[in-house]
Amino acid sequence: MDLRNNLITVGEILENPRAKEILRREFPELMNPLLLAMAQRMTLSDVLLKAHGRYPKEKLDRVLGELRAI
Question: Where exactly are the structural domains of the chain?
């Protein structure tokens, strides 16, 4: 998946069923319909800034690698 230098939106990522499954597996607490609706237009870069310090860098790097491999 082309993450477009992390400028891809959450909505675009979630359109891909494989990507959605990765996020559901790794971040089940964030797969709340209300949260997802609010995040649809956020870029991956925005999400990563908010995730910094809340999730280990290793986990974020691994998930990004899985998304890029799609």
Answer: 4-69
